[in-house]
Amino acid sequence: MTSWKVLVSAPRAVSEIAHYEAALRPAGCNVVTRTPVERLTEAELLPIVSYIDGMICGDDQITGRVLDAAPRLRVICKWGTGIDSIDVAGARMRGVVVCNTPGAFTDAVADTVLGYILLFARQLDRMAADMRAGLWQRRPLVSLNECTLGIVGLGQIGSAVASRAAACGMRILATNLDEGSRSSRAVTAGIEIVPLESLLADSDFVTLHTDMRPENRRLIGAAELAQMKPTGVLINTARGALVDEDALVSVLQGGRLAGAALDVFEEEPLAKDSPLRGMPNVYLAPHNANASATAAGRVHANCIRNVLQVLCPSDKK
C-alpha cells in the first residue's frame, strides 16, 4: 500500500486528531500535525511541506513559495469555506487539487449575527451588569421591527441572516450580489436591493457576508464608515480584511459609530494591545461564529473524504 503523509493543521481538526488518524491511517495515510494558535505562516510551512502529500488546513498561508517547496503535494482541503489564504491559481497550475467544505456553518454564523443584533437592540448583558453592580436603571431600547438591517453579500449565510431578520420584522436591505438570480429571489422575499452607499446610510445594523477577493480588501474603510448612521452598528463575521480596522477604531473612538461586533480581524489573533479590546461598545470573539458541534462533525467527515478521493481514488470512502 502506498504511504501518504497528510498535514493536519486546522485548529479544530487538530483538536480531534485521533478521529483523523483513525480514518486516514487505514487508507495508508500517515498524519502529521502542527498546532497553530490560528494559522501557520509561510515561514512555518516552508520547512515541513517537502514531504507532504495532502493538507487539511485552516487559514494557513499557502503561497507560491510554499507550493514550490512541496513537490509531492496533491491536495489541499480547507477546513471550512474561505480559501483566500491559498494561492489557488498557483496550486492548480501545479496540479494540486484545492477543495473546501462550503455551507456547513451557515446556520451557526447566522445565529451569531442575530445574537449580536439582539445584544445591541435589547442590551440584555448590559442591564444584567447594571443589576449586579447594584444599579436600578432602565436603558433606552429598540425593538427589531423598528430597525433596518443591511446585508453586504446575499449568499447562503447572508440569506440565512435575512430569513432570521425577516422573522423579527426587520426591514432588510442588501447589496453586493454575485448572481442576478439572487436578486429575483431577494425581491420575492421582500429584501430591497440597493447600492452599497444607500445601504450604509439607511441601515441601523450592517452585517458583512461577502467573500475575500482582492477587490474587497478593506471594502469598509473610512469613507464607507462615514456614510453610516452615528447610531449604526457594524457586524463582521466574514473576513477581517473586509474592514479597515484603524478606520473603525477611529470612528468608534470619535463617537461617530454606536458600536461593532467583530468575530474576525485583519491580523489574528487580535493583538493584545488593540484599542478594540478596551471599548465597551464593541463585542469581540476569537473567530468562533461558526462554532457548532454538529456542523463541525460534517466538516471533519468532508475533509477526510475530500483528501482520500484525491490520494486514494479507488478507495470507496
What does this structure look like?
- The structure is a single chain.
- With 317 residues, the protein is of the alpha/beta class.
- 36% of the residues lie in helices and 15% in strands.
- It is built from 13 helices and twelve strands.
- The chain has helices at residues 11-14, 17-24, 42-45, 64-68, 88-93, 106-122, 124-132, 156-167, 180-188, 196-202, 222-227, 245-253, 293-311, and strands at 4-8, 29-33, 54-57, 75-78, 97-99, 148-152, 171-175, 192-193, 205-208, 233-236, 259-262, 282-284.
- The strands form two sheets. It has a seven-stranded parallel beta sheet, with helices on both faces.
- Helix 8 (156-167) links the parallel strand 6 and strand 7.
- Helix 6 (106-122) packs across helix 8.
- The protein starts with a strand and ends in a 6-residue tail after the last helix.
Short description:
36% of the residues lie in helices and 15% in strands. With 317 residues, the protein is α/β, with parallel strands linked by helices.
